[in-house]
Automatic annotation (TrEMBL):
GO terms for biological process: maturation of LSU-rRNA from tricistronic rRNA transcript (SSU-rRNA, 5.8S rRNA, LSU-rRNA); ribosomal large subunit assembly. It comes from the Eukaryota. The keyword Chaperone does not apply. Keywords: Nucleus. It is found in: Nucleus, Nucleolus. GO terms for cellular component: nucleolus. It comes from Acrasis kona. Residues 281-306 have a biased composition (Basic and acidic residues). Residues 281-324 are annotated as: Disordered. This is Ribosome production factor 2 homolog.
Length: 324
């Protein structure tokens, strides 16, 4: 029997977060598969580990362009936002569908045809878990054509793996190159990185072809509506760093942070400050009494001064009388 605490923790894990977890993908095999397509799915499965669910053990009758509900239910069950579906039919041979979801709702989906397949020549980096690839896109079509723009964005989102702030260059051991051959064809090439001694501090870097290499030809596309895309691209309030937040923060030449603080106008009359007796507001009668008191004090002070002067003048005569 499943405990209530486990159900609660699983439910909380699937709730939206300010900083989301790494994207999980599902690799699915369709009704029929060819040998090249099996190897491509196996390569994607190893490339996406450990953030991947492998569903290539048995065939599945999923047709996302005809019925998308089954894929959405599967993504909700596996808590996955990416999927790769491979199928092989006479009408669409070597068919690879790549898609992503937002909030378990289909966002973008592109159907590729795998052509000119070359198998893997050398085993290596594809067996390393969480080995981040260097992904390079070449060609003007990725900038000028709308479908190629979306293919560029979707492939980058699907293959980059876990998002990190920094990586060790020595851990960068394989490169994926996507070249735009035309407005609907992408050449996918996979290379390994070898570091060889050069007699200096910086080693010599060489690219070695690993495979698999193949061409991806765009067949069908399905993109999200403007409203759904706006929701998917919305940034949480906690992570917004716009100009209106940092317009008063600058850095000097030494890198020190300087900020300008705006203070509202202060009500000086109501500020609680130390009040001195001489600055206290008084009535006319109180002022007259104080002046009168000050006059009396002045007279007493003058009397004391006169008394002290007379006493000092009498002292020498008293001394003279004593001597006589």
């Amino acid at each position: 029997m499943v405990s209530k605490g486990l159900i609660k923790r699983n439910k909380e894990a699937t709730q939206p977060k300010v900083i989301e977890n790494s994207k999980t993908s599902v690799v699915i095999s369709g009704r029929k598969q060819s040998q090249p397509l099996r190897e491509v799915l196996s390569f994607i499965n190893k490339l996406r580990e450990p953030n991947n669910v492998n569903w290539t053990g048995q065939s599945h009758n999923y047709l996302p362009f005809e019925e998308v509900v089954e894929i959405e239910n599967l993504s909700k069950h596996k808590d996955a936002s990416l999927f790769f579906l491979g199928s092989h039919t006479k009408k669409r041979p070597n068919n690879l569908t790549v898609g992503r979801l937002f909030n378990y709702e289909m966002l973008d989906m592109i159907e590729f045809g795998v052509e000119n397949y070359t198998p893997m020549k050398k085993k290596g980096v594809s067996n390393r878990v969480e080995s981040k690839p260097c992904i390079l896109f070449k060609g003007d079509a990725f900038v000028n054509d709308d479908n190629m723009k979306m293919a560029h964005n979707l492939l980058l989102d699907s293959l980059r793996g876990k998002e990190v702030k920094a990586i060790n260059l020595l851990g960068l051991d394989h490169v994926i190159v996507c070249t735009a051959l035309s407005n609907d064809t992408i050449q996918f090439s996979h290379y390994g990185v070898e570091y060889k001694p050069s007699g200096q501090q910086t080693p010599v870097v060489e690219l070695v072809e690993l495979g698999p290499n193949f061409d991806l030809k765009i067949r069908r596309t399905r993109f999200a509506s403007s409203e759904l895309r706006k929701k998917a691209l919305e940034v949480p309030q906690e992570l917004r760093k716009g100009r209106h937040h940092n317009k008063n923060i600058t850095r000097d030449e030494l890198g020190n942070t300087e900020a300008r603080i705006h203070v509202d106008q202060q009500e000086i009359k109501t500020i609680a400050i130390k009040k001195f007796e001489s600055l206290k507001k008084r009535s006319r009668d109180e002022i007259d009494k104080m002046n009168k008191k000050a006059g009396l004090d002045q007279e007493r002070l003058q009397e004391k001064k006169n008394f002290s002067t007379t006493s000092s003048s009498d002292e020498p005569s008293a001394k003279k009388s004593k001597k006589q």
